[in-house]
Amino acid sequence: MEQKEENLVKKTCRELKITQKELAEMMGVNAITPSQWITKNSIPEWADKFMNLILENKKIKTLLTHLNI
Fold it and tell me: What is the pLDDT of residues 35-67, one digit of tens each?
């Protein structure tokens, strides 16, 4: 059975432990915009890149913390 990939908005909020409203504030968009991206299953390219960058940044910070750097 094929597993559906988690929506990037939901994944970003879950991994950063923030709300969709907080994500919207970080991105400089209206508070309901992330919810609309989920509903429409359509995320603008710039927003996709932004969220992937902040997720990658979190991974790097975690790695550096574990390495005591």
Answer: 999 999 999 999 999 999 999 999 999 999 999
H/E segment holding residue 51: helix 45-66
Give dist(CA 40, CA 60) in Å, integer. Answer: 31
Phi-psi region of 29 (alpha: psi -120 to 50; beta: other; left: phi over 0): beta
Contact 58, 16 (CB under 8 A): yes
DSSP, res 6: P
Structure tokens at 49: 């890149």
How many helices (H) and strands (E) in the chain? 4, 0
Measured CA to CA, the distance from residue 50 to residue 48 in angstroms comes to 5
